[in-house]
Amino acid sequence: MKFKNYKSAIHNFVDSFQSVDYSKSEKLAFNVLIHLHNHKINSSATFDFINRIIEPAEANTNESKQLLNDYIDWLPEHFKNHNCDLNKLEKLTITISADIDKAYEPTGMNYC
Questions:
Q1: pLDDT at 71
Q2: Distance (Å, whole) CA 58 – CA 69
Q3: Beta bridge partner(s), residue 95
Q4: 102: which residues sit within 8 A by CB, 6+ positions away?
Q5: 93's torsion region: left (phi>0), alpha (psi -120 to 50) or beta?
Q6: 111 pLDDT higher than 80
Q7: Quick check: helix, strand or coil at residue 20?
Q8: What single-letter DSSP state applies at residue 26?
Q9: Which of 17, 96, 99, 109 has its CA 20 to 30 A from that of 45?
Q10: What is the DSSP string of 39-96?
Q11: What is residue 97's DSSP assignment?
């Protein structure tokens, strides 16, 4: 086990979590932000993978719980593939946010 591998393991984990790829979960992190925005709440959410906590409370929906659990389930395999010991991890939180009011559809890219 090399501690230098943790940086790439965590980077790849976070990249996958916030992507629009359904390979690890049927749910998308971005949809949590849309849910918050639609309820007039700041579009920012924090996922704590060690303590299994989602904040704010309004972001703690069945869908976001499934997303969190799907990624927690994948974490041991992912760390093993990076030659990292998951038990050495003390903290793993991801905070995602978006200013959805400033989002726009690029010219020629309908429904983007």
A1: 96
A2: 17
A3: 46
A4: none
A5: beta
A6: no
A7: coil
A8: S
A9: 109
A10: TTS-SEEEEETTTTEEESGGG--HHHHHHHHHHHHHHHHHHHHTT--GGG----EEEE
A11: E
Are 106 and 33 in contact by the 8 Å Cβ rule? The answer is no
d(CA 14, CA 112): 22
Q: To which residue do tokens 């230098």 refer?
A: 4
Q: How far apart are CA 66 and CA 25, in angstroms?
A: 8
How far apart CA 25 and CA 40 sit, in angstroms, is 26
pLDDT tens per residue, range 55-86:
999 999 999 999 999 999 999 999 999 999 99
Q: How many whole angstroms separate alpha carbon 71 and alpha carbon 48?
A: 11
Match 């719980």 to its residue by tokens: 65
The string over 4-34, giving b where at least 16 C-beta atoms fall within 10 Å of a residue's C-beta and e elsewhere, is: eebeebbeebbebbeeeeeebbebbbeebbe
